[in-house]
Amino acid sequence: MSLTLTVNGKSHALDVDPSTPLLYILRNDLGLQGPRFGCGLGQCGACTVIVNGAAVRSCITPASAVKSEITTLEGLATNGKLHPVQQAWIDEQVPQCGFCQNGQIMTAKALLDKNPNPSDAQIRQGMNGVLCRCMTYYRVQAAIKRAVKTIAGRTSGKEVAA
Amino acid sequence: MTTFTAIPRQIEEALDGKTSRRDLLKGAGLLAVSFAAPRAIAQSAPGPYPEIDFHQVDSWIVIHADNSATFYVGKTDCGQGTGTSFRQIMSDELDIAFEKTACVMGSTDITVDQGGSGGSTAMERDSWPMRRVAAEARRVLLEMAADRLGAPVDQLAVSKGVVTVKSDPSKTVTYGELIGGKKFHVALTGNNINAIKGPAPVKPVQELKNVGLSPQRYDIPPKVDGSLKWAVDVRLPGMVHARNIKPPFAGAKLVSIDESSVRNMPGFVKVVSKGNYVAVVCEREEQAIAAARRLKVNWEKPATAPFPSSEQLFNYMREVAPKSSSRPVVIGDPESAIAAAPKVIEADYDVPFQGHTAISGAHATADPSNGQMTVYSNDMKSYGMRRGVADFLGMPHDKVRVVWMEGPQGFGRTAADDAGCEAAYIAKELGRPVRIQWMRNEETAWDTKAPAFAVKMRGALDAAGNLVALDYDARSADYNHVGYNEPDTVLIAQLMGIRRSTPAAGSASLPSETYAIPHRRMATHVVSLPLIWETPLRTGNLRDPNGPQATFASESFIDELAATAKVDPFEFRMKLLEAGSGDDAGFRRARSIAVLKAAANAYGWDRRPSPQPRGSGDILTGRGMAYSFRGQTIVAEIAEVEVNRRTGRVWAKRLVCAHDCGLMINPGSLRHTIECAMLHSLSRAIHEEVQFDNEKVTSVDWSSHPTLTHSDAPEQIDVVLVNGDPNPNRSDLAPYGGGEAACKPMLAAIANAIFDATGVRLRRVPFRAPRVLAALNSAKV
Question: Could you give the ipTM of this predicted complex?
Answer without folding.
Answer: 0.96
